[in-house]
Structure formats: C-alpha cells, structure tokens
Predict the structure.
Amino acid sequence: KNEVEQSPQNLTAQEGEFITINCSYSVGISALHWLQQHPGGGIVSLFMLSSGKKKHGRLIATINIQEKHSSLHITASHPRDSAVYICAVDEGGNQFYFGTGTSLTVIP
Amino acid sequence: GAVVSQHPSWVICKSGTSVKIECRSLDFQATTMFWYRQFPKQSLMLMATSNEGSKATYEQGVEKDKFLINHASLTLSTLTVTSAHPEDSSFYICSARVGRTLFFGPGTRLTVL
C-alpha cells in the first residue's frame, strides 16, 4: 500500500472547468506539498500546507488532518494548467512520500 | 523565490563511465538537499538526503556505492552515478528546503548507451 494515494491518475478537462485533484495519505505529517511538473520536467512547489486552506490565484489547496486528505482545486482552468500535479507528504525529519501524480490536460 | 540549478541539464554517456551531476542553491544556503530519480510517467522517487559536511542518508534499495553523493559546501551537492549502465538512464532531480518550502532544480536527463 502506498503511503500517498492520488486520484485521478489522468484528467482531461475543457477550458474553464473547475478541477479537483485528491490526495489521501496514511502517515503522520508535518506538512503536505502540492507540486506542479510541466512537460519539460521542471517542478514548482505550489503550496505547503499543515492545516486549513490556502489560495493563490486560481489555485486552492485544502487539507483535513483528521481525515488525512488534501485537495487541490483549479478554478477556470486554462490550457497552461496542463501539467502533472504531485502530492508530497513531509513526515518530518526529511522523510518525504510522493503520490504517483495526476496528469492534467486542459483542452481549449 | 529561492533558485536551485542543476548541471548538466542532459547527458549521454557510454556504459561503464561515471557521470557527475551538480545541484546548486544560487541565492541561499542549503544544509540539506534531496536527490530524486523519475522514470517516464512515474512520480518522484527519493534516492537520498544530502547533508552538508556529513554522509548522505540513502533510501532503502538505493546503492550508496553506485550513487555517490557529496555535499561539500552549503551551496553545492553532487551526485555521481558510477559505472553507469543503461538501466541508470533516468531523470535526476535535486531539491533544497528553505524553511518548509521545497525548491527544485530543473532536472538532469541521463541517457546511458
């Protein structure tokens, strides 16, 4: 069993749609990260969460510590949002667990 | 935000040769850096944690004699793939932590012929 499970694995959406990517984890966490990886390979850290909710532009990340679940939402999706989104759990002490990623394609 | 660079961005080598990949923190000091590898259409796999001035901590199943890590300064960690073989072909990525935020290098694509 993976320590971090993401769903869906693949997602295709029409431009403008509201998108949700889910992440469930089974380990104790110090923080949870949402990462974005573009086709060229570069990875950007979108959010670091330890509780509650964060918003940055059209992106919203939430976490429920009791349920061990986090979601990444993209409002008014755009083709430039097409990327792989990875959930990473920081257990603390430099121990990280990565989800398998969600490949998002937004069609114009 | 903090910038992490990697060099080279891609490398092709013959089987049996050794390849060194550099990871630099450009505008901050990083006592800890992380090395990952990523196979096509798969997520990141943490290989090791690189600690400045001390030995790296390797994840289970990663051969420390195969993947040599040196973190000689607060801004530079190197990963050397020794006696590379085609199965070592992969995308290698480093990251550094600033507080709790992770900053990633752009990655190095290694192809071993």
